[in-house]
Amino acid sequence: MSNETLIEFPCDFPVKIMGLRRDDFAQSILDVVIRHAPDFDPASMEMRPSRAGNYLSLTCTVRATSKAQLDALYQDLSSHPLVKVVL
User: Fold this and answer.
1) Could you list the residue range(s) of the whole structural domain that residue 57 is in?
2) 49 strand-pairing partners
3) Does the residue 35 lie in any domain?
């Protein structure tokens, strides 16, 4: 029962990643996303700085093919040292 999901695959799935605003943040996150979704288009990454400019929010809409793929992506992003929150 724990492997069940309401998501129908394949689908476009947005992942929001937030972390401290650093020069290497977006590239570091892109490297992780590409590892799990090789067809991800880097030009589609949306970036939004926080109001004070201390944090950066990235939205990456990946073509998800399975629950296992999304779980692995979330795990790698959540354990990344530059990431504060993954939604």
Assistant:
1) 17-86
2) 56
3) yes
Closest among 46, 43, 42 to 15, alpha carbons compared: 46
Quick one: tokens of 76? 């790698």
Q: What's the rounded Cα separation, in Å, for the pair 52 and 45?
A: 21
Predicted TM-score of the model (pTM): 0.92
Q: What are phi and psi of 7, to 5 degrees?
A: -80, 135
CB 57 within 8 A of CB 86: no
Bridge partners of 46, per DSSP, are: 59
Q: Which CATH number belongs to the domain containing residue 50 in this structure?
A: 3.30.70.260
| CB of 10 closer than 8 Å to CB of 68 | no
Is residue 60 in some structural domain?
A: yes
Per-residue pLDDT tens over the stretch 31-48:
999 999 999 999 999 999
